[in-house]
Design goal:
By secondary structure, the chain is of the alpha/beta class. Helices cover about 30% and strands about 15% of the residues.
């Protein structure tokens, strides 16, 4: 995919397990999305990238269940981007929907 895409296009991979961060980086991901992971899992994923000398090759984004009361826990792992919907959804009720392609 990357060979066919314009140089300005970025490949973002959302992973479900911390171990998959290294695989995504080794296979050319520009951005790795760590979605709905605990701060401990995020730390494990980022440390795995560092231990494999891949951390500087990717942008790490964390998202999902990040709120003002646990933000500091996620910041300690030094991700590049933190996404949260707390500011726009609170106090509204919302429905969390995801779509999976196999």
């Amino acid at each position: 995919v990357k060979k066919k895409a314009s140089f300005s296009k970025k490949i973002e991979i959302e992973i479900e397990k911390a171990e998959d961060a290294v695989v995504a980086a080794q296979n050319g991901a520009d951005i790795i999305m760590l979605d709905n992971m605990s701060s401990i899992e995020v730390e494990h994923a980022i440390n795995s990238l560092k231990n494999n000398n891949l951390r500087d090759n990717v942008i790490v984004e964390v998202s999902g269940s990040i709120k003002s009361d646990n933000l500091v826990d996620y910041l300690q792992s030094e991700p590049d981007v933190i996404s949260t919907s707390e500011l726009t959804l609170f106090p509204s009720e919302h429905l969390d929907i995801s779509l999976r392609f196999d």
